[in-house]
Design a protein that fits this description.
Chains A, B: This is Membrane protein. Chains A, B: It comes from Limnochorda pilosa. Chains A, B: Its main location: membrane. Chains A, B: Keywords: Membrane, Transmembrane, Transmembrane helix. The structure is a homodimer. Chain A is 86% helix and 0% strand. The first copy, chain A, is an all-alpha fold. In chain A, helix 1 runs antiparallel to helix 2, helix 5 crosses helix 8 and helix 11 runs antiparallel to helix 13. Chain A has 13 helices and no strands. Chain A has one domain. At the A-B interface, helix 1, helix 2, helix 4, helix 5 and helix 7 of A face helix 1, helix 2, helix 4, helix 5 and helix 7 of B.
Chain lengths: 263, 263
């Protein structure tokens, strides 16, 4: 990304040679292992941590709004941490596994069709490349080349007909990564709450200590999302802070108003 | 899917004509608007409802485990419903928007490269098709055809180089769908809890009434996931029941044991 910006800048500055060099560097970089590869489990980690911190803090805020004791804040915060963390992790695991199963099944289906109805499948390849602007002898030769290799043929059907780009990800590892990072993220508001309880000067303000520390952590975790969600870090950080704040204010508000109704 | 199974069955039964007919039907069906199109917001709805029911019930279980009053179960259940629902919805909205932005930016980048460094980009197209088994004159003609049209050229780079298949989804609609379905799903355990309170025979068993109704609802919502997650409905239903049950048991357990420590 950076190198393309460099190329654009050089081009605008009337230095086409520098632009060409930067562009070439970019081309080489693009052939290195894909950025998404590196981010395969990183995205589970970052998203898990985000979710953990937002939902745990919403529980802390709701309980505080309902004017329950600090002990209950911790009990329910921990209960939510474990319960939600497990459900997120299991959801990630099952989701990834079903995606892997689905892609494998579609691949087997295409392979079966290629083996048993080669003519129909060949016609589909022809149609795909006709739409890309080929015709006549060239079209036939392309169809010939693609269908000469079973793997290549199936791959073409997957991408062009089914629009499936396969991703190789271990469901179990994705689930575990989600669980651990959810626990780590979700522990932040609770640890802040406990720490505040240890210092007499802060003890009466456990909730506010938790607010400040959690806000900083939300911004930090949010800005880390920029590694996987294609967004400038400061914007990702602020957005996360806004989402987490909104959730906490809503939970606090419900707790506060319903407590009034209940008493 | 069904028609392919039909084709396979007919083929195995030694009726290639019936198999060919079924296969042809399948080919026609595949040209109809893609199944994923229909499921674009359906997946947000189903996933939102699943998440709502699981997390709200985990809160109900945690509070019950900590032996707090039914009023507090409802207050905290509602606080969590609104807080988590808002954060889920905002997360969906921001995630979709950043995905749309990213794809648009990558498309603009490729377009810029195609316009300013056509030779480098043409070499990339050549490389892509060389890997598909083309060479010599045919390869050159394919490169010529693809690069003759700017739109087609950029599309090829998006799919083959960047592995991006663009999805047109309205972020706002995705976020709202998530919010509403989260509220509907999450309301189920709470409504069950309230209803139980209205019947004297059940009043002492509010939690268990909520357990039974929630379990049925979890299975139902879970089996609806089979529409979007490529899984048989009964398996999707049972898996969701297992995930929700696990989360609830964990939350109940933490509430129960920590209450013991606290008192």
């Amino acid at each position: 990304m950076k190198r393309v910006d460099e190329a654009r800048r050089a081009y605008r500055q009337g230095d086409p040679d520098a632009a060409a060099r930067a562009h070439e560097m970019n081309r080489i970089a693009a052939e290195e292992p894909h950025e998404q590869e590196r981010g395969k489990y990183l995205s589970d980690a970052v998203l898990g941590a985000s979710d953990g911190i937002v939902t745990t803090f919403a529980v802390v805020a709701g309980v505080t709004g309902a004017a329950l004791s600090p002990t209950i804040v911790l009990i329910l915060g921990l209960a939510n941490l474990l319960g939600d963390g497990l459900s997120m992790a299991a959801g990630t695991y099952l989701g990834e596994r079903s995606e892997v199963d689905y892609q494998q099944k579609e691949r087997e289906r295409e392979l079966w069709e290629v083996r048993h109805f080669p003519e129909g499948e060949r016609a589909e390849v022809r149609e795909i490349y006709r739409k890309k602007g080929l015709s006549g002898e060239v079209l036939e030769q392309v169809v010939e080349a693609i269908t000469a290799d079973e793997e290549r043929w199936v791959e073409t059907m997957m991408r062009e007909e089914l629009e499936i780009i396969e991703e190789r990800k271990d469901p179990l590892r994705a689930g575990l990564t989600t669980f651990v990072s959810f626990l780590v993220g979700g522990a932040i508001p609770l640890v802040a709450y406990i720490l505040a309880g240890l210092f007499p000067a802060l003890a009466a303000h456990g909730f506010w200590a938790s607010v400040v520390i959690t806000a900083l952590a939300m911004f930090t975790v949010g800005s880390m999302r920029s590694i996987v969600i294609h967004k400038p870090w400061h914007r990702a950080g602020l957005e996360m802070l806004a989402v987490g704040g909104l959730a906490a204010v809503a939970a606090y508000g419900v707790g506060y108003f319903l407590r009034g109704l209940a008493s």
